[in-house]
Amino acid sequence: MMSEPLLPANVEAEMAVLGSVLIPEGRRAFDRIAQRLRSSDFLLEGHRVIFDRMRVLHAAGVPIDALTLTDARQQAGELEIAGGPAKVALLIETGAIETLVDNYVAIVERDGVKRDVAQRAEQLLHEARNGASPEGLARRLGDFATELADRLRAQSDDVEWALSDAADEWDVDTPEFIVEQLLPMTGVVWWGGLPKRGKSLLMLCICLAIACRRECFAKKFKVVAYPKILYVTREDGLARIKARREDILAAWGGTARESSAQVSRAKAGRPSECSAR
Would you tell me the crossing angle of helices 134-158 and 98-129 to the nearest 10 degrees? Predict the structure, then answer.
């Protein structure tokens, strides 16, 4: 005999959402949580009871913390359903910090919507088997589809992307470049591509352009700084590197010896011109 599949739910995410309201860093998040979630979005009855009690406290202007929540539930006789102080302590331990709570809210909301769809479908199926008219079923189905569409639309409107605002604290200054828009002054750059597509050759060109103090190379890459260069490779021998160097310099209109003289002129304040080649 096959068992019925479990309804979608994430109890850990539910606990993280509820716990976030009880920790100092997350108490301001309840407005956002209450706007997006319904008590039915929580799978466990205890979690639904706690969420509803939080709503009552919030509406009354009472700060929500472990003490006020436990006292309110005790006065309402809800401790047996939702658990006592130990349950609240567990929620606090698993509470999400404010910057992450929206992610957990989205999980709880998603699973809540899926369970709602499954339960409504089961209800319609039950009614269809017990004499409901096609017109009535279609009307119920249409009403639910409209309700669901409105909720999903509200979800997309309420999403807050923590790092998308250009004015937020995560912004960094525009980096200084060695080669404009190609090689920054600091950090690590990783270039990738298929084999034999010129990655090593491009890097050698960049190094030579910097070492020779060229103003640009390949007609479009502008060199704006000239730090010391260390070229390290595992795939080419010294002879191949020298041959490539001569080919590159020849294409630029010079040789290794001429390039050394060019560097001396550049150090004296006369950087080389961009080659037309």
Answer: 170
Of 216, 209, 221, the residue nearest 249 (C-alpha): 209
Residues 51/70, Cβ–Cβ less than 8 Å = no
- Residue 205's identity, in one-letter code, is C
Half-sphere exposure of 175 (CA within 13 A, CB side): 14
Quick: pLDDT tens for 120-177.
Answer: 888 888 988 998 898 888 888 888 888 887 777 766 555 444 444 445 555 556 668 8
In tens, the pLDDT along 48-89 reads 999 999 999 988 989 888 889 989 888 888 888 877 788 888
Q: Is the pTM of this model over 0.85?
A: no
Beta strands in 99-219 (DSSP E): 177-179, 183-184, 216-217
Residue 40 CA to residue 165 CA, distance in Å, equals 32
Domain extent listing, the chain: 11-158, 177-267
The single-letter DSSP state of residue 108 is H
**Rounded to the nearest 10 degrees, what angle do helices 11-22 and 85-94 cross at?**
100
Residues in the chain: 277
Tell me the CATH number for domain 11-158.
1.10.860.10
Take residue 77 and report the two structure tokens written for it: 């006789």
